[in-house]
Amino acid sequence: MHKTLATLPVAVIGAGPIGLSAAVHLLNRGYTPIIFEAGTQAGAHLARWGHVRMFSPWSYNIDPAAVELLNQGNWTEPSLAKFPTGKELLEHYVLPLANHPKIASHLHLNNRVLHVSRCNHDVLRTKGRDDTPFVLRIAGPDGEHDVTAQAVIDASGTYQTPNWLGAHGIPALGENAASNAIRYGVPDVLGVDRAHYTDKSILVVGGGHSAFNALQDLVRLSEQSAGMQVHWAVRSEPVTNVVRSPANDELQERRALEVHIQALLEQDRIHVHTGIEVDTISQDGNRLIVHSNGKSLPPVDRIIAATGFRPDLSVLSELRTTIDPATQSPTRLAPLIDPNMHSCGSVPEHGAAELSHPESNLYIVGIKSYGRAPTFLLRTGYKQVLSVISALDSEEEPTPVQPCAAPTCPG
């Protein structure tokens, strides 16, 4: 690395669990991190789904290097076998880590990264590129300003960019016009969002575990609200068994949720609509009607879009990245995580080699590195940042992991 570059900080975008882990490892390696968080607190995305219980236990969700740092203070380590909610992960791990003096002095809240480029180099210019600092355009409380860095680690996540309801991958006709009655992700149906769903007819769209979480909460609320109806729209046809995980699944909370939803289906507590490819959302007064290939679903008051998330790559548009056109993950990582092949989410260990780009010292890590693939674990992200920061010290390119020839699911 050029000597002038080596005096600059390493920019970390996002102060969630993975971004903070990157900062810990950077400090351990003698680098100076500078962490930019767009939210008002570290772990801002976690706060939005704090009511949801995670499938993975505490042992999967904390970085040993961060634990070592936290143990230097009065932090109490949680029971590693228990399964935290998002709120518990935030309050008992992320915020204590962000507030640790060694981290807090490098953390800049309310600072959104708008663009990342190279000083005096747009994406087309090659000469001297690798010896030129990165420049990050930051929008902060006092306006916009630029910061230079020797490397960039993008751990900004995907929660701010949910997928559309439209089956084409773009908004359904009428989706934007109906946005006031649509919630993306998993709302806190039994908590702060309760008033939006009580005594109403609700449609959940999506076939994954986020949809399951929303459905179970809606059914529970309907037990206290006689006027409620819970509808579920999925692409698959038919829905007969949603228990996908093996009995010995290491993520037992995942299996427990599947078993619970299966029981609710057998009890006819959920109105299921199969083979739904949303193309249009129309409005009849204050009610919404979803249309799919000429078929119309019953009118509902609100829609929950549990349709997954996608990465926002626009911030890196002036950098030389290699992004897989399908998964929107780094190209060499894509075959290891492609959900069309890896239905069980068993992904080989990977690191800097799979996460690297033609732009030297640029890495996308954490759930954003998975693009649209839904099978990310925090444990994976912690291993990613350890590899990435080790690579910053090395002149040799790491050897990529070979994709599985025939990925299979246990059980």
What is the gist of this entry?
This protein is α/β, with parallel strands linked by helices and 411 residues long.
Task: Write up this protein.
With 411 residues, the chain is an alpha/beta fold. It contains twelve helices and 16 strands. The strands form four sheets. Strands 3-2-1-7-16 form a five-stranded parallel beta sheet, covered by helices on one side. Strands 8-15-9-10-11 form a five-stranded parallel beta sheet, covered by helices on one side. A three-stranded antiparallel beta sheet has the order 4-5-6, with no helix packed on it. The radius of gyration is 22 Å and the shape is globular. The relative contact order is 0.14.
Instruction: Give the averaged pLDDT, no decimals.
Output: 92
Instruction: Give the CA-based shape.
Output: globular
Total number of strands: 16
Cα radius of gyration in angstroms: 22 Å
Helix content: 10-25%
Classify the beta-strand content into a percent band: 15-25%
**Structural class of the helices, strands and pairings?**
alpha/beta
Helix and strand element order: HEHEHHHHHEEEEEEEHEHEEEEEHHEH
Task: Give the strand order of the largest sheet, numbering strands 1, 2, ... along the chain.
Answer: 3-2-1-7-16
Q: How far do the termini sit from each other?
A: 48 Å
Question: What brief labels describe this structure?
Answer:
411 residues, alpha/beta, five-stranded parallel beta sheet, 16 strands, disordered C terminus
